[in-house]
């Protein structure tokens, strides 16, 4: 909105030329997101507390979690608002990619919201039935995938990390592939969200990494130089990623150990899906498994644990997802969290290096 209001003034005042630049608008989108978190955050946490929108803690989990009973949840509302509002303020609203990203974030946030609402307000510990939740996720992702596929800028070619000339076309399999990336990322972030700051740290790092990828994919000269797929218009997603990183840092202010608020499914499902859809639109889909390697590690630990338990009646981990394994091994919560962040930073750097090692 600000872009549309202020950029045209450059004809009379050259200062307003600055609104043309994606870099400038990304920085201010991130700052706006942070400020929104600092302004709305304390009020929202108070409101969630007053309406007793607090977490019930499962008794079969690590004992240290029992003290977290009643911590306000649904803090993901803050993340979604602080991403979407700055995006609408600073991005070019004529850009389709921006609308698809906003649609996916709001859509998955709404599924998460209903799940949280049933759990914490209706006191229905199961939330939305898993099958309904999954079908709704697939439906939303399918709408996004179809929009992306029909959009002229996006082709069905995927980028294979480390190979500059290998961009296989998936043909009709492209839509199921996009659904898999979006729904997979959404659920993997959700599984990771089990310790204070554990999911939001790698989400910030991933949003920061995709901020870079979006900028590069949308810049014809740099994309040609790096020999990555050029996606006209995708540069505008840098602003969305900047807002998401800013919102994440703002949320972390309150979610850091010991957390004053949890994001709930409202936050985890929307963040994961937003990262997934951006990865698809900037043509760095497969490398998301490396950028979001912490999320992958958590999801794989659950798959392995369930599979081995079913087939051998034995467990690989003391408890899955794997962060519970370390808790039960006696590691202090902040130690697990910060170490997972460190792993996430290393993975993001490796992912960025694939731009050159190819
Ligand atoms: C969400 N939710 C947290 C909070 C957060 C298949 C199975 C592995 C699924 C898995 C599962 O349900 N995962 C999805 C995990 C919960 O957090 C809430 O949920 C939101 C995210 N959706 O925002 O609202 C708890 O996590 C803790 N927490 C924090 N700080 C935070 O910032 O401490 C969350 C955010 C909160 C709080 O304690 O209550 C969760 O863990 O439930 N299930 C599991 O993870 C369970 N694992 C399990 O059953 N493992 C089995 C098999 C099936 C693999 C095994 O290893 O044998 C464990 N979870 C819990 N207790 N709580 C086990 C027991």
Précis, in short:
By secondary structure, the chain is mainly α. It is 64% helix and 0% strand.
How many structural domains can be distinguished in the coordinates?
1
Strand fraction? under 5%
Task: Give the biggest beta sheet.
Answer: none
Which term fits the overall shape? globular
Instruction: List segments where confidence is low: pLDDT < 50 over at least 5 consecutive residues.
Output: none
Count the beta strands.
Answer: 0
Helical stretch tally: 14
| Helix-strand string | HHHHHHHHHHHHHH
Q: Percent of residues in helical segments? A: 55-70%
Over all CA atoms, what is the radius of gyration? 20 Å
Q: Give the overall pLDDT as a whole number.
A: 95
Give the N-terminus to C-terminus distance in angstroms. Answer: 39 Å
Q: Describe it for me?
A:
With 358 residues, the protein is mainly α. It has one domain (2-353). It has helices spanning 2-6, 22-50, 76-90, 96-121, 130-150, 174-192, 200-217, 220-226, 237-255, 264-281, 288-291, 293-312, 322-328, 333-353. The longest helix has 29 residues, at 22-50. The protein is globular, with a radius of gyration of 20 Å. Muraymycin D2 (57M) binds next to helix 6, helix 10 and helix 12.
